[in-house]
Amino acid sequence: MTARLTVSDVTCRFGGLRALDGLSLTVEPGTILGVIGPNGAGKSTFVNVVTGQIAPASGRVAVDGRDLTGAHPSRLARAGVARTFQVVKPFRDLTVRQNVACGAMFATGASVARGLEEADGVLGRVGLAAVAEARPATLPIGHLKRLELGRALAMRPRILLLDEVMAGLRPDDVAATVALIRRLRDEDGTTVLVIEHNMAAIVALSDEVLVLREGAVLTRGAPGDVLDDDRVVEAYLGQRFARRRRENPDG
Amino acid sequence: MTRAGAVVAAAAFAVLCLLPAGLAPGDVRTMTSVLLFATLASAWNIIGGFAGYASFGNVAFFGLGGYSVAVLMTKASWPFLPSVAVAAVLSAAFAALVGLPVLRLRGHYFAIATLGVAEGLREVVVNLPRLTGGGAGITIPTLGARATTHYPGTTGFYWYALAVLVAAVAVSAAVSGSRFGYGLRAIQLDEAAAASVGVRTTAAKLAAFALSAALTALAGGVFAFQQVTIYPERLFSVEITVLMVVMAVLGGAATVSGPVVGAFTLRLLDEYLRRHFLGTHLIVFGAIIVAAVVFLPQGVVRCSADAWRERRLGLLDTVRAYRL
Fold it and tell me: How many other CB atoms sit within 10 Å of the CB of residue B189?
């Protein structure tokens, strides 16, 4: 079976800095993959390369075996790659409903009427039905994060990249979002990549966790194993802390 | 369009149809100019309002439209209507060609580049005297054997201008409610987010620019024939560019009715001041524009819609809501 997402040997430079350095990974359909790593590990660049915001210097990105390296973001969107933005980007003069409808209209080719209809369904799923006619400017950040998610869901994505979608949410909203993403994987077979600082959410949600460091894969595995890995502790907290942890496993 | 919007549009159209019968010829000429400016503002609104790419070079399409009509009628002996149709197509093609590089720029850079395109095109016209008459201008034959089309006269041009405005408003209304219109608004509000939901941003911007150019060229063609003799400075005038932008923005950018409301208000105000305050009319006109920008920052149409919805009727309340 072809992987849903294949990233092979991708390198991405900003001046002298290699933000991604020969990154390779595959993700199977219907998996939730948590992507973590210290600041500067290349998480955001990874999202930007997969969604077409940045063309890699070398390497290949393929969706369901189809090479889409360096394609325009809109082409990737129509190929089924949806994302949320870490810094929310709502269309602020459109209503919440129209925002979500845009996802359906442009990614799936729905008509305006059909898009608005789809939006109503999605708004129910992300819990924004009550504010459907509101403008984004009047909403708190938690709602805007869910609007990002709703607009991406309306695209009926095959691959959904969630960039810090739970940051700034209240604990009960986090729980609701975790449940929603699980349901998406189970019902629609969506592949979900979760980039998140909220470790509790990552562990609760992910089938697998991948750790990035210096633009390459440090390790990958079940959430519990990965967080227990000395190399991961070292990448986050430094050698001294990792050594102390080895010497004193209970503390 | 909402039902109320359709009723208002139909009523306005009926009034405009009856108007020439009740006005003196001088006033009909003024109204023709109002209609042409409303067309220019509506056309500008498609690229500058909906898509949010503030073109300061739309006068290039006005000039290209006018000169295409004049050259085709004079050198190729074409009648007016096919000439103006070809002028629209030519301008759209020119916009698509220029847009390919220029629409990669944003904000101030796009504005400056389009301003340069208009100035450049004027220089081209001046330097092709065999075709365009150069700086001395070109005269469309309106009498005798060389005339290709009967000169329509004051009222005739009023009808041409009204037809062109109806076309511009109909196109704007169609764009506004369509998926294309949603795509343009998405581009205006956040181009990166628009691309990430699947909007073909380059194609949408090119189409908006070409559509805007075609409608602008129609107005240019009618204006050229009405003027009979046209000169480069008269058609490629920065003043026309500024007026169409100010009209669209003051009326309400990215709305269907805003540019029309803005054009009628400002052009008629200009005419009134010109008649009653000959010496000071420009400074009064300028002061009124400044006041309008301060008090109605989102444009007349949006401010009044918001005020009506929120029952916020004092002028200062509007300032408080948008400016503080």
Answer: 20
- The C-alpha of B32 sits at a distance from chain A's nearest C-alpha, in angstroms, of 34
Taking phi over 0 as left and psi of -120 to 50 as alpha, with beta for the rest, A22 belongs to left
Residues 6+ apart with CB under 8 A from B242: none
The values of phi and psi at residue B104, to 5°, are -80, -20
Eight-state DSSP code of residue B46: I
Q: How far, in whole angstroms, is CA B100 from its chain's centroid?
A: 22
Interface membership of A102 toward B (CB under 8 Å): yes
CA distance B282 to B240: 15
The two most distant CA atoms of chain B are separated, in Å, by 65
The reply to whether the predicted model has a pTM over 0.90 is yes
Instruction: Provide the 10 A C-beta neighbour count for residue A205.
Output: 25
**With contacts defined as CB-CB under 8 Å, which chain B residues touch A111?**
179
What lies within 8 Å, CB to CB, of B160 at 6+ separation is B152, B222, B225, B226
- Closest by Cα among B193, B256, B254 to B49: B254
Contact between B169 and B6 (Cβ < 8 Å): no
CA A160, A43, A68, A207 torsion: positive or negative?
Answer: negative
Going by their DSSP bridges, the two strands A17-27 and A191-195 should be labelled as unpaired
Helix (H, G, I), strand (E, B) or coil at A24: strand
Residues B272-311 have pLDDT tens digits of 998 988 888 888 888 888 888 787 777 888 878 877 777 6
Contact present, A145 and A166 (Cβ < 8 Å): yes
Amino acid sitting at position B318: T
CB-based contact A73 B200, cutoff 8 Å = no
What are the start-end ranges of the E strands in B123-165?
Answer: 138-139
- The CA distance from A64 to A50, in Å, is 13
> Tell me: the pLDDT tens digits for A3-15?
999 999 999 999 8
Q: How many residues does chain A have?
A: 251
Degrees, nearest 5: CA angle B278-B283-B284 = 75
B139 strand-pairing partners: B229
Q: How far is B284 from chain A (nearest CA, A)?
A: 33
End-to-end CA gap in chain B: 32
